[in-house]
Specification:
This protein is an all-beta fold. Among the domains are: 94 residues, no CATH class; 114 residues, no CATH class. The chain is built from 1 helix and 28 strands. A hairpin with a 4-residue loop joins β1 and β2. It is globular, with a radius of gyration of 22 Å.
């Protein structure tokens, strides 16, 4: 996602926002209007781009089809519309023609940074968005994963980061495997190789292909189990619903159903809901730049370095995984309202910190001279 600034605040509706990515802008769609109680500012429902500009309607073009989420002017129903270029969409609830959608809408084109092709001939988009473990907004048209935080250290927000000023840090390194051709799966206790031919990881023991699909909202791990998925022809990708404890399977284009009872799920595995926090399942890792071992603290679900009073964990739920840090004296400051997880942005040479409003640049009032991070 592009860096977001000047974003609306204080949204509290249970109808969660939805993110989408276009060639021109990235958008977050808010399905309800609201007032930010802290400032009294009123925000209209609709789309907000990365600069905070509001659009009543945005339609994303995907090949020869347009897609938008809007409210019908006639019956007031919130609807998801798909229509072919040149056609006039109609409300699926009341049947009214919605010519205003074709006349008063900002049109953009879907941006796909990479197309992932399954080993069975069909494909889905994978934008490679950098996603952070957190409470991710659920989208009612697909099964969703509600991802929680880790231990007492709180939640990690789904968006990062916001663009502000620069800061200076001291760089360090740790001894870790930088080979991106494989991934360690904690629940399996083994490495799984990446196959360019299939654009996915593969576990030979369970005969399962799996990939982190960022083209759905929220992004999620999806699985192709031989003997199950292959029964569904050109579809068959599976996703695990953590809240319900159920497997879902894509039975047709965009249609996800609970996996039928005739399939035995006893031997099916899935990624941990909250990630493991551990690097390659290790209870102890050596951080080269501070030249000492750091031990895993089970009750905090994080590693800990006593000399710098820093908890840190490896968020391996997302792809690619990222390191997060909780520095005593900074992360637990009152102004961060109990959030406080920190992440270092390598491209910008900046520290960001999670607040109740999302990820923001760490204020200059905090000394970063002695802060370290893992490359």
């Amino acid at each position: 996602m592009r860096k977001r600034t000047n974003q609306p605040k204080g949204y509290t509706s249970t109808n969660k926002p939805l993110s989408m990515r276009g060639n021109t802008h990235d958008y977050v769609y808010y399905p309800n209007s609201w007032t930010d109680t802290s400032t009294g500012t009123f925000y209209e429902r609709g789309y907000y781009d990365e600069a905070g500009k509001h659009y009543e309607n945005v339609a994303i073009k995907k090949k020869d089809m347009y897609e938008t989420i809007c409210c019908c002017d006639y019956c007031g129903t919130s609807i998801k519309l798909n229509w072919k270029e040149g056609a006039i969409p109609s409300c699926p609830n009341c049947g009214a023609l919605l010519s205003n959608i074709t006349q008063n809408t900002f049109f953009d084109t879907e941006l796909q940074d990479r197309v992932v092709t399954s080993p069975f001939g069909f494909s889905f988009g994978n934008t490679g968005v950098k996603t952070v473990l957190g409470t991710i907004a659920a989208f009612c048209f697909l099964p969703y994963l509600s991802v929680g935080g880790m231990g007492l250290l709180g939640l990690i927000a789904p968006f990062l980061p916001y663009e502000t000023d620069t800061t200076t840090v001291v760089t360090t390194q740790t001894e870790q495997n930088t080979d991106e051709s494989s991934i360690y799966v904690d629940v399996l206790g083994r490495e799984c190789d990446w196959y360019d031919e299939y654009e996915s990881y593969y576990d030979e023991v369970t005969d399962c292909y799996f990939v982190f699909n960022t083209d759905v909202e929220p992004p999620e791990w999806q699985y192709w189990y031989e003997g199950i998925s292959s029964d569904y022809g050109d579809y068959g990708w599976m996703a695990y619903h953590y809240d319900e404890g159920l497997w879902y399977i894509e039975s047709s284009d965009g249609q996800w159903d609970v996996l039928p009872d005739r399939y035995d799920t006893a031997d099916l595995w899935h990624m941990n809901e909250e990630g493991t926090g551990k690097y390659n399942g290790q209870d102890m890792i050596h951080v080269t730049s501070i030249d000492r071992d750091c031990e895993w603290i089970p009750e905090e679900e994080a590693y800990y370095d006593q000399d710098t009073d820093c908890y840190f964990l490896y968020n391996d739920y997302v792809e690619p995984p990222v390191w997060h840090y909780w520095y005593g004296g900074i992360s637990d400051a009152e102004e961060f309202n109990g959030y406080g997880w920190m992440e270092y942005d390598f491209d910008e040479d900046r520290w960001y910190i999670e607040t109740s409003n999302g990820w923001e640049l760490l204020p200059d009032s905090y000394d970063t001279t002695d802060l370290w991070y893992i490359e």
